[in-house]
Amino acid sequence: MKRFRVLLARHPGHAETRLLEAELQIAAEDFPKARAALGDLAESQPSARSLTIMAAIERGEGGEDQLVRAWLAKAVTASRGPQWTCSACGHVHGDWQPICGHCDRFDTLSWEEAPQSEAALSGPTQMLPLIVGALENQSSDTEVTSEDISQDGPTDQDAPDADIVDIEPTNGTETADVSARN
Questions:
Q1: Residue ranges per domain, the chain?
Q2: FRET partner for 32 with CA separation of 20 to 30 A, picked from 18, 74, 101, 105?
C-alpha cells in the first residue's frame, strides 16, 4: 500500500483507482477495506474485473459458496471493461501498439469498451449452471440405470473417445490436432 499511495491519491474517485485499491486490500487480506474501496462499482459499472473482485471479497469474508458463485456467474458474461481496440477493424489488443496487428493501420488503437459479440458469450453462458451450482441442486437420491442411459441416446461406448492434444494459433486461425484412443 505504501508504494501505491501516491498513485492512488492522484485520482481517488476513478474506477481504475478504486479497482486497484480493492485488489491491494485483498492482497493484504483486509476485506472490509477492499469492499469499501470497491464501493458500488460491481453494481453501477459491472465488469468482469469488478465482479470477480467482489467474489474474492465475499470469499475472504467467509461468504457462502452460493453467493461467491453468483458473483462469478455474473463475471463470466460481463463486459471485459475498456481495452485497446482498433477503431478501424475492432480487433482487441492486450497492450497499446502504434500499428494494429490485425489490419496494419497506423494510430487506430484507443482505450475503449470493446463490443461483445454473441459468439464470445456462447461458451461462458453454457458454463453458468456449473458455476452457479445448478447441478448441485439435482437430487442425489436419483439413481441412473443403464436403461435410462439407453433411452437418452447413444452412450460413450457407441462413439470413440477423443482427446484434444494440441491447439496452436497460426496466422490468426486455430488448428486442432485430435487423436482417438483405442
A1: 1-79
A2: 74
